[in-house]
Amino acid sequence: MPTTSLLLRGRYVITDAARDGCGLIEDGGVLIAGQRVAETGPFADLARRHPQARVIGDGSHLVMPGLIDAHSHGHGLSRIQAGVFFDYLENMILDWPWRVALPQELACPLTAIRHLRMGFTTVHHNGWDNMGAKALAQARAGIARYKETGIRLAYSPAVRNINRFACDEREFLQSLPPDLRALAEPFTAYDSQAVGEQYLELFEALYAEHNSDVHHIFLSPSWAHGVTPDLLRRIKARADELGGIPLHIHTLQTPHQRAYGLMKHGKSLLAYLDDLGLVDRNITYGHAIWVDEKDIALLARRDASVSNHPSCNFHVRNGIAPVYEFLKAGVNVAMGVDDKSINDDDDPFMEMRMMHKVHRVGGFDLENTPPLSARDVIRIATLNGARVLGFEGQLGALAPGQFADAIVLDIDEMMTDPWVKPGIDIPELVVHRAKGTQVRTVVVGGRVVVEDRRFVDYDVDALFREVRAFCDRGVSPAAAKDADAMKRLMPHHQRWHNAMLKHLDVSQPFYLMNGRR
After folding, report:
1. Which of 108, 115, 356, 466 could join 142 via S-S bond, C-beta 3.0 to 4.6 A?
2. Using alpha carbons only, what angle is made at residue 181 by residues 481 and 488, rounded to the nearest 5 degrees?
3. Can you tell me the distance from the alpha carbon of 43 to that of 55, in angstroms, rounded to the nearest whole number?
4. What local confidence, expressed as pLDDT, does residue 306 receive?
């Protein structure tokens, strides 16, 4: 816990993306007392009135709010590092036997290190399969090791108690020849009700132990189509009982998921969730790519949120979420890297730049379709992410009373390689040119976690030795045995999901990218 005041000094200070010019202060400072921002303003004035404050920065840097990853799964080791490359999401469900999967006590701190060194100060660890006898111990170990790194954590254990292996997995089993059915049955042999009960018990334990003003624990039905209606209602009711804590749900990530909703319910999965009372202000829909105008209007009407992950969506061939249309309708959009950054390095600035560029295709009408601005993108990566993680009004800006989560960047490369026009818009310059490798200092809750690009109180080398030692063992014998079964099942799995696409009309894109004539 910090005991002395800090004074961050910047040639430029971006304070708040909700303000004109992102609240830019030239030759500015951010005074931090304890865990929170005390004042912002001209550096000279703050230094004169607070001579005992420890100064960080020599006046040549950029200071801005720490960035927020609103959707990560905390794998630590990327798929590429594990030698498994990307394909459709449905294939990725089956390819896990080919890669080394770190235990949470290694994956979680490694995720934090990758994030902090690039300028993320908050990460949302969205679980995937939090079930089984060891689930609670694994989650506890992961959370503890996240906290050791100094990152701010939002942690949502997740559940799928139906459709874990395939959409309509019981029917999928019956479609297989007997020998392949025998291979697939173990992956679908679970008690749906028991899984739901175990999940709620897991959440209650983690919430009681770890939820606080500093770190948040909340709920996540993994898929809109992967949780029973009864469990969805129970999860929403519990979130409301706890004061409307966040929910996070992967929804309409792939065309197959949209087709499944139309086939199974005769409507979009978002409309189906709304029938259950699960479209609300405290809910975020991960990806939300395969939506239509009615879905967007529903999200706006309910004041709900989406998380957008442009790099991930390209990696796994999901498509392009209509972020431009979301923002135009007033939907809150947050940014997530989803363990699949375009440079495989969890660089938030590159993800911001991807978002900025991908959604410059709102149309060819130069008068009525202005592109996203730097202010839009910085807000998505700060304030909007704070809201979806339950930190609204507490994170995302360098404003008095908010948590002091900030980053300090070298701007020499941005400004003098070899020249930038004097008076250029600094937030625009950041979105166009900043890089995670330019992050010099990271402050989380008033604590200096990274200084001069070195972790202050965390032994990264020791963590890397642990990770390498584990990875050198290779995949487990059980996983290697499953790999053969998955290779044989994959073509059937693909055909099963592709057959659903007959229920989907994709002839009207949101974005016109080009044309044949």
Report:
1. 108
2. 50
3. 10
4. 98
Residue 508: CB atoms within 10 A of its CB come to: 7
Cα 207 from Cα 216, distance rounded (Å): 8
The helices-and-strands tally (H runs, E runs) of the chain is 20, 19
Q: Are 409 and 45 in contact (CB under 8 A)?
A: no
Cβ 64 vs Cβ 13: under 8 Å: yes
- Nearest Cα residue to 115 out of 508, 503, 450: 450
d(C-alpha 104, C-alpha 146), whole Å: 9
- For 396-474, strand residue ranges (E) read 406-410, 439-444, 447-451, 454-455
What's the pLDDT score for residue 367?
A: 79
DSSP 8-class letter at 68: E
Dihedral angle over CA of 249, 254, 255, 261, nearest 10:
-20
HSE of 265, CA atoms in CB hemisphere, 13 A: 19
User: Rounded CA gap, 121 and 396, in Å?
Assistant: 10
β-sheet bridge partners, residue 13? 25, 63
Angle at 508 between CA 503 and CA 512, to 5 degrees: 145
User: Which tokens in the block code for residue 455?
Assistant: 């972790």
Exposure on the CB side of residue 230, measured as CA atoms within 13 A:
9
Q: What is the pLDDT of residues 72-97, one digit of tens each?
A: 999 999 988 988 888 777 777 788 77
Unique residue bearing structure tokens 């790519």: 289
In this prediction, residue 1 carries a pLDDT of: 43
Q: Which uninterrupted H or E stretch holds 306? A: strand 305-308
The number of beta carbons lying within 10 Å of the beta carbon of residue 204 is: 12
CB 122 within 8 A of CB 395: yes
Q: How many angstroms separate the CA atoms of 299 and 317, rounded?
A: 24
Which helix (H) or strand (E) segment is 32 a member of?
strand 25-33
For helices 460-471 and 104-116, what crossing angle results, to 10°?
A: 130
Decide if 305 contacts 329 (C-beta within 8 A).
no
What are the beta bridge partners of residue 443? Answer: 406, 448
Report the 10 Å Cβ neighbour count for 387. Answer: 22
Q: Quote the CA–CA distance of 485 and 505 in Å, as a whole number.
A: 33
Q: How far is CA 468 from the centre of its chain?
A: 25
Q: What predicted TM-score, i.e. pTM, was given to this entire model?
A: 0.97
Cα–Cα distance measured from residue 449 to residue 146, given in angstroms and rounded to the nearest whole number = 13
> What letter does residue 119 receive in the DSSP assignment?
T
Are 263 and 256 spatial neighbours (Cβ–Cβ below 8 Å)?
Answer: no
Residues of the chain with pLDDT under 70: 1-3, 362-363
